[in-house]
Design a protein that fits this description.
Mean pLDDT of chain A: 80
Main location (chain A): membrane
Distance between the termini of chain A: 12 Å
Low-confidence stretches of chain B: none
Number of strands of chain A: 0
Oligomer: heterodimer
Largest sheet of chain B: none
Number of helices of chain B: 9
Strand content of chain B: under 5%
Order of helices and strands of chain A: HHHHHHHHHHHHHH
Radius of gyration of chain A: 24 Å
Keywords (chain A): Cell membrane, Membrane, Transmembrane, Transmembrane helix, Transport
Largest interface: A-B, 46 and 39 residues
Number of strands of chain B: 0
Protein name (chain A): Peptide/nickel transport system permease protein
Membrane topology (chain A): Multi-pass membrane protein
Family (chain A): Belongs to the binding-protein-dependent transport system permease family. OppBC subfamily.
Largest sheet of chain A: none
Number of helices of chain A: 14
Order of helices and strands of chain B: HHHHHHHHH
Shape of chain A: globular
């Protein structure tokens, strides 16, 4: 069964790689204007673009060859884990991405961790006290947080904590104080949704016959909660992670741009300006793969948590 | 028949929010009607007056005019992309769930390709395709949004089509249009309504987001996300100007989300 999950997700990853490559390839070819000029502008700066520079770029990159040849070349290279060289910096894309991936993952992990720190207590509390003031307050906060793009939260954080209070630096990278604001901005958007999810799950489980039976047969509230409620609360929440993964990745693009965090999202926005096709493909590909990876982990956790799935697989 | 359309108080609040924003646009056009792009550098960051109820920005442009123009852009984008994505998603979802077979498989492959990338990344790519084009952004946002309708409606259609009621209708010889109107539409309309409201909110968010990373519409176009980046450097001179587009985005999306019905408690 675990093998099946991994197999299915590997196929999905391959599919992501192919579709991202093909999609970006087609779309970038459709871009108006001369490709070579744009790349020359990205390399040498907009004031230094000339016919000669554009021709040099064209010859250098083989842009005058038919598109289909370039596309097949990209596919073959992909199989060798070679994503080509960045058109702007001329370093291998894999090398640049590997470097940026570390920063993005750091941000993602801390954001998810902060999100759990916020969402689990809030969700559990609201689920145990449905309809009370705390529940209604958490609903209101969650609705308001969801009604804005993640960068607005980031902007307000910068305004409040960096510019007014001066507690944290505005943007940058390095020591941990640079991490807190971007991770917290992301975490708030994630927690806005997952806290409600945890709340609904808690509320359902506490009202369920099996939980009432556990209490009825003499377990203390603590025992019943640990053994009977918590795994059942966790199940739908973990399954929900795949939806959160989209929010997380989209949030990373915005938040990295806002805070100049040197990650994949920041790289993607930059590569789009410079029309650095290999970098765009690489960054989009990595985001797609992170997405698949998160879903795989969620699948595996659900499998571990839910014995019913294992029995189904055996029978 | 009408009894099931019972609005909750939160939905009224959402409608009120949207009406408020729309009335801002209408009042601006009726009573002020400034050009959102005309500059007047002596008047930069002028405090609100009767002639300029929301003050002016860093180029002395009328904030009210810019906000109203940005709201129009966002609302138009929301309406267009929701209409397109709903029509596309619902019709393809019904076809895939009804006919199954190869058409279902092909559509599911297309959907999987679209789902392989987070929506915003796709919109970003399209924004790079034709910089500053409203039309391309509309195509991109609709392309991302229709998938949701397709998946929900397809699943609904499969269940409904297997129900005894539909079987009976088909046995009696009723045509596809009757089956759609009598069985499918009533089963789907609530989902479509909710998806449409959330879709409108999401399209506003997407437009503002890519405006914010400078891939969307170009200056001097007034667009909510773009206004934020433009005004951010001046926050210490006039934080209240920066707060205007921020508030507008929040109210607009909140309005759509509230109308969607929020959560079932």
């Amino acid at each position: 069964m675990i093998k099946q999950i991994l197999l299915r997700r590997t196929a999905q990853a391959a599919f992501v790689a192919w579709s991202v490559g093909t999609l970006t390839f087609i779309m970038m070819r459709l871009l108006p204007g001369d490709f070579a000029y744009r790349i020359a502008a990205g390399r040498y700066g907009y004031d230094y673009v000339s016919q000669a520079a554009a021709e040099a770029v064209r010859a250098d990159l083989g842009l005058d060859r038919p598109a289909i040849v370039q596309y097949l070349e990209w596919l073959v290279n992909l199989l060798r884990f070679n994503l080509g060289d960045s058109l702007v910096s001329e370093n291998p894309v894999t090398q640049e991405l590997a470097h940026q991936l570390g920063s993005s993952l750091e941000l993602a992990v801390f954001a998810s961790f902060f999100a759990l720190l916020i969402a689990v207590p809030v969700g559990l509390y609201a689920g145990r006290h449905t309809g009370e003031a705390g529940d209604r307050l958490s609903l209101m906060v969650s609705v308001i947080l969801r009604a804005q793009p993640v960068f607005v939260i980031g902007l307000l954080m910068v305004l409040a904590f960096s510019l007014q209070l001066g507690w944290f630096p505005v943007a940058g990278f390095g020591s941990s104080e640079y991490l807190i604001l971007p991770a917290l901005s992301l975490a708030l958007t994630l927690a806005a949704l997952s806290s409600r999810m945890i709340r609904n799950s808690t509320c359902d489980v506490l009202a369920s016959p099996f939980y009432r039976f556990a209490r009825f047969k003499g377990l203390t509230e603590q025992q019943a909660f640990t053994h009977h409620a918590s795994p059942n609360i966790a199940l739908p929440v973990v399954a929900f992670v795949s939806i959160q993964a989209i929010n997380l990745i989209e949030g990373i693009v915005m938040i990295e741009s806002l805070f100049s965090w040197p990650g994949i999202g920041h790289a993607l926005a930059h590569a789009i300006f410079a029309r650095d096709v290999p970098m765009i493909q690489g960054a989009a590909l990595v985001m797609g793969l992170i997405f698949v990876a998160i879903n795989t982990v969620a699948d595996l956790i659900v499998f571990k948590l839910d014995p019913r799935q294992r029995e189904e697989a055996l029978s | 028949m009408k009894a099931d359309i019972q609005l909750r108080p939160s939905q009224y609040r959402g409608a009120a929010l949207l009406l408020f924003l729309l009335s801002l646009v209408v009042l601006e056009t009726l009573f002020w009607g400034h050009n959102p792009a005309s500059q007047n550098l002596d008047q930069a960051f002028h405090a609100p007056t009767l002639a300029e109820p929301l003050g002016t920005d860093q180029f002395g442009r009328s904030n009210l005019a810019r906000l109203s123009s940005a709201l129009q852009t966002s609302i138009l984008m929301a309406v267009f992309s929701v209409l397109t994505s709903a029509t596309l998603g619902v019709s393809l979802g019904v076809v895939a769930g009804w006919k199954r077979g190869w058409i279902d498989r092909i559509l599911s492959i297309v959907v999987n390709i679209l789902l392989a990338l987070p929506g915003l990344v796709l919109v970003l790519l399209f924004g790079a395709l034709v910089p500053g084009s409203f039309f391309i952004l509309y195509v991109a946002i609709s392309l991302v949004l229709w998938v949701e309708y397709f998946r929900v409606i397809r699943a609904r259609t499969i269940t409904v089509m297997n129900s005894p009621e539909v079987e009976a209708s088909l046995l009696y010889g009723f045509g596809p249009w009757y089956v759609f109107k009598r069985h499918l539409w009533p089963a789907c309309k609530k989902d479509i309504y909710t998806l449409a409201c959330f879709g409108a909110g999401n399209s506003v968010l997407a437009l503002a987001s890519i405006g914010f990373v400078y891939v969307g519409l170009r200056p001097p176009h007034a667009e909510l996300g773009l206004m934020m980046v433009e005004l951010f450097p001046y926050y210490s001179d006039a934080a209240w100007v920066l707060l205007q587009p921020l508030t507008a985005v929040i109210l607009l999306v909140l309005g759509f989300h509230l109308i969607a019905g929020g959560e079932r408690e």
